[in-house]
Amino acid sequence: MHDETLCFTPATELVRMIRDRTLSPVELMDAVIARAESLEPRLNAICTPTFETARAQAREAEAAVMRGEPLGALHGIPTTVKDVAFTKGVRTMAGSRIFESRIPDVDNVHVERMRDAGTISLGKTTVSEFGWKGNGDSPVTGITHNPWKRGTNAGGSSAGAAACTAAGIGPIHQGSDGAGSVRMPAAFCGVFGLKPSFGRIPYWPMPNNGLISHVGTLSRTVGDGALMLQALAGPDDRDVTSLEATPEDYVGRLGEGIEGLRVAYSPDLGYLRVDPEVATLVHAAASAFEDLGCHVEEVNPGWGDPIAMEHCLFSATFAGMLGHLLDEWGSRMDPGLVALVEHGLGYSAADFCRAQGERHAYYDRVHAFFERYDLLLTPSLSVVAFDATRLIPEHWEQHPWDWLRWAGFSYPFNLTWLPAATCPCGFTGEGLPVGLQIVAGRFRDLRVLQAAHAFEQARPWAHARPIVE
Fold this sequence. Notes:
The chain is an alpha+beta fold. The chain is built from 15 helices and 15 strands.
């Protein structure tokens, strides 16, 4: 198989080939590393490569196959780890000069599980500083470029993971999502991104925003996302919020279909601005669900505008994490992050508790909505990928730190812990991807995957490959 074809082959197929001994993990790893090395100067997606370790582990994986040993669900599959996730013995900078030399002595539990499933990490992928924004740049690693157009935003904070996925540098990648940080880069880069129900994938050590941030997956196909979730999901008592329930058969039940589901389509959640070209493509994508046998209704969910609550919870969390570091490090931090932290320091403990109460009331309204509907469809983002040097698109109202408005479809489902995915649903006239968001009620991760898979079958996307400039 030609190396580029191999690099764009789904993990579901690669796993079968490795088990059948028609593909060597070494051959696969060599192809993926060669592609990474050829594209990396233009993408800037892998900030700490571990290529030689990966090659050695690929040789071990091949030997295990030849010895007939039991193999994990993702044996020999190349992947990466987001640079906010702890990796024992491998530098974890979190996109910040503050931790530029940090080498953890522990793995995050999802890193353990990926390794136990047989994946082999190529290295750490770039993030915005502490994952604070929906843009793919940081003071310590610079700009990560969107594979579809150099100089445009790859999204954040899982920027490098999404860029690698789109560019064929491994089929599956790990991300985390505290305000859309899996779904935003997936939408900008034209790949599938899944934020499962909160607690579905354990998060330990838990970050300071751990009651909002979810671990998620990025892949080119829904099948690969399901396979990855199958490997990562399940309880772990180190995470006090992890779900006790045994995960469903995400892979085996993926193709069961969605005929008869009640589907709500909201073009703006009742209050968000959306650029016209995005709105047109998402509206067309929503119509596909009628062809799939669903009952689709355009709605205003009526939940209200949560932006004031979001401002408090979002900024106060970062203030709690970083406020004490501003005097020493502020001049070397992302200026937008500094502005965010300074804003957060202005809230009182009473303000924060009041916002938490508003969050609970917001969840009640969302929960009631999903008693009437099985799925909600929205745009993933209000905009397409824009100038990578900007925090906010030039044609939008500017602000020193508030990028949430152009990504306003993401955060509500972090606040409410619901499963949400983004699927590619078309390209603009300039050839930039647009995403459709699919949301279901809490714990309905399988339903989201089945809906995404059905949409993928109706409107395939994985054949589209960027030409990296």
